[in-house]
Structures are given as C-alpha cells and as structure tokens.
Amino acid sequence: MALLGAQLVITLVMISIIQKVGPHYSLARWLLCSTGLIRYLYPTDSELRQLANIPKDQWKSKKGQRHLENGHQKKDTFHVPRNLDIQLETCTVSPLDVVHLRYYDEYQWLLDFTLYSIFVYVITEIYHSRFPEKNEINLSMMWCTLVIAFALKLLISLTTQYFKGEESVGERSTCIVTGFMYFLISMLVLIADESVLEVGLDAAYANFNETTSAFLSKQGLKSSGLLSKIVFKFFIAILCGFLGALFTFPGLRVAKMHWDLLKYFKENRVKQLLLNLSFVLPFILVVLWIKPVSRNYLTVRKFSSFSEPLLQPHTFESLRFTAVIITMLIKMVLTPWYLQAYLDMAYHRIEEQKKEAGRITNVDLQKRIAAVFYYLCVATLQYIIPLIICLNLTFMYKTLGGFSWKGVFDSEESCPIDSTSYLKHNDGPSSTLLQSITEFHMSVEDLKTVFNPIVFRGLFGFATWWCCFLYFATSSTGMVYQSYFTRS
C-alpha cells in the first residue's frame, strides 16, 4: 500500500513552484501595490515653516545650530500650530515603498504560503475525488497545519507588542480582560447541551476514550480513559480564552476600518449593503451551529408546500463548511477597501488635529502621518490572519471529518460514520519476521483509529465555530465602541 504516492508528488511540485515563482510573483505584493492603494505623504520641514510663516532668517539660524549626536546629524525641531491648514499630498503605494515596512517579510511569507497551500489542498481534493479508494496520507493537511501554525505565531507576535513598553497599559489590560471574558463564555458554551449547540465535542470525547482504551488494551495496558470530561473541557476553555485575547485587537481593527468605510460610502447604497452583508455573514455562520434554528429547521421540519425537509443531513453538513469558505473568500476580496480605509487614517488624524488648540513639534506631526503607512502590514495581518485561520480550520474540518463536497449537489445519503468500525482487533502475536512487520503495521493502523473522523469532527468543528464566533464577537464589540465612544 502506498502511504504517500501522488501526495508526495504534489507537495514536491508545489515546493519547486515556490522556489521558482515565489521571488517573481507574490499575491501579498500585488495586494498592496497593484490594487490602487493611496498613501498620504507627510509635509517636509520647509513646507511646515512656510505654512507656519516662520521667517527665513530663522531657518538659517536653525540650520547653523545643528550638531552631531552619536555621529549622526540631529534633526531640527520646531513648533507649529495644531490648527495649521495642512493639505496632505498622496501617491500610489509602490513595491519600493512596502519593502521597508514593519512585518512586511512575515506578511508576504504568510499570504503567499497560504495561497500555495490552497492550491495543494484543491489539487489533492480533486485527486481524491477521482481516486477515492487510494489509502494515502493526505499531505494537504500538513500544509494547512503549517499555515495555521504560522498565522498563530504571527498573531502572538503582534499581540505581545501590546505588552511591551510603559505606554501600553491599556492594551495589556484589554487583552487580559477579554481573555478571561472569552474563557468564561467558552465554559458556558462547553457546558451547554449539544441539543442546542452541536459542537460535537461530547461525541468526540466519548469516541476518543473508547478507542484509546481499546488501543491500550492491545498493548497490554489497562485504562478507562486518558482525561475526564471536565479536565478535557477545561483545557479547551483555556485555549478558547487565549484565542479570544489574540483575536481582540484584530477585531477592533476590522471594526474601525468598517466604520470608516460606512461613512465614506454613505451615499452609495450598494456598497453599504455589501459591507453590511460581509459584516453579518460571520453571525450567520455562528447560527448554523445552533441546532434548533439551523439543523432542525432545515433538515427536520417539514413545510406545508414540501413533503420532505428542505435539506438532507449530509447536505446540511456540506453546506455549512461551504458557507464558511464563501464568507472568508468574500472578506478577502474586500481587503483593498479595508486597507484604504486604514490608510485614510492619516488624513482623518490631520483633520481632527485642526480642531485642537496649542502647538506641536514638526517631528511629532510627521510621525503621526508616517506611522499610519509604516504599520500598514501590521493592519493587513490583523485583518487577514483571522480569515486564514478560519479558512484552514474549515479545510481540516471537512477533510479529516470525512465529509464530501458532493453533499451540496448530491441528494444521495452518504454512509454514516460508526464509532465501532474504528475498533479493530489483532489475531494474536506471530513468530516470523513477516508477521512481526504485519503486526507493527496493524499497530500503526490501530493508533490511527484513535484519531478518527468522529474525533476530528468534534475538535475541528468546535474550533471552526469558535473562531467564527470570535471574529464576529470582537468586530461587533469594536462597532459598539465606535458607535458610542468616538466622535463622528
């Protein structure tokens, strides 16, 4: 039996494509430099002096007072009125502009690698649809796992920036408070009966304990299970709270950009409708896991004009993860709008500053404008990382959970998964070398039965639902903050 076969070929070909095509074509670079993004240029010192009506003789005296600090020439510092009538110049974002931005290398690697991973996944799914009987290791799951690992690593790196420095007390407190809040919410969700919220963890836990006990019994060990259900769900709740803290500031960032876009497109009803639809879609995804208003309504209830329910159970499952994928792709398509809304923050900062009294140094004013573009890749990562995580979790949920894409189009009922089918039994020890090798192979197969589709359905189904919930909850919290605590 081939363990890798075509899977290894697909992976090696994609690695070769990354090496050959990656340096020349980049989705990440195209997204920032070829979608028409406009950035704002900060005014130079001479422009600020002219606007502030500083006499030219003081320019010369200031130049004469320049001195070296640590071998570098110190920049002149002078004060200008805050309400100075500054008109910012604009230019299109170019590749030479973005290569020096913070987190640009990490952003480019993550987005490009995600694109290659999607290609591998799609090709693998097509291959398995043509040769369903091939019992090979699905290497596309390794690609998806790497994408999620890279995304979480970057999200942790971005979040730790809020814990550095003495000026980040508010951000640190926000992360800690939201982490505990989502920990408590996850505990309530995990305690809830699965007749209301079908996350599938109870079935996954029962199956995992059953198959684990059977596997250990074959190895000559006695066990009634590795973890109690309370401990199992407690550790999941801790991970949920940690993810909630990581998703907090990305959600607030998305809400701020969405709020600015709604104001910018207030005269365009079509674009406003599209934006609001993209904002509501994660909530619809969350509702799809609430059994009384989703599964029971679509797969059990019979309407007067129909003799059968609207959907078959397997069709509903396929429709659910398909809805997650479509939602994430729609939000990825709208990325340039949101990034432009972020870049427009430089303009809004100057407009708000014009309403203030007092004076500000030229350096601080220029930093306020330049910082927006300098952190463009950070804002982009905060926007796309939750989408990437949700998308790849859905891929793993579909594939490892044993679902089929045909469920959306095919009305034929698929065979249900029976937990007892994963409990295999050995015929006993053997003495020959060939039989020993066979026993070893059977032991590996028995180990694979511990992590079967029922377990994966519970774990990745809950992970997908929780990430969709976090995405909607954090962005909704940000919208509430924008509505009640910011000036219009």
TrEMBL record:
Q: Which InterPro entries does this chain map to?
A: Transmembrane_161A/B (IPR019395)
Q: Which UniProt keywords apply?
A: Glycoprotein, Membrane, Signal, Transmembrane, Transmembrane helix
Query: Which domain of life does the UniProt lineage start with?
Result: Eukaryota
Name the predominant localization.
membrane
Q: Which family does it belong to?
A: Belongs to the TMEM161 family.
One GO cellular component this record assigns the protein to is: membrane
Q: What is the lineage of its organism?
A: Eukaryota, Metazoa, Ecdysozoa, Arthropoda, Hexapoda
What's the name of the protein? Transmembrane protein 161B
> Which compartment or compartments is the protein found in?
Membrane
What is the residue range of the signal peptide feature? 1-23
Query: What topology does the record note for this protein and the membrane?
Result: Multi-pass membrane protein
Q: Name one Pfam family in it.
A: Tmemb_161AB
TM segment ranges: 109-128, 140-163, 175-192, 230-252, 273-290, 319-339, 372-397, 454-473
Coiled-coil features, chain-numbered ranges: none
Organism the protein comes from: Pyrocoelia pectoralis
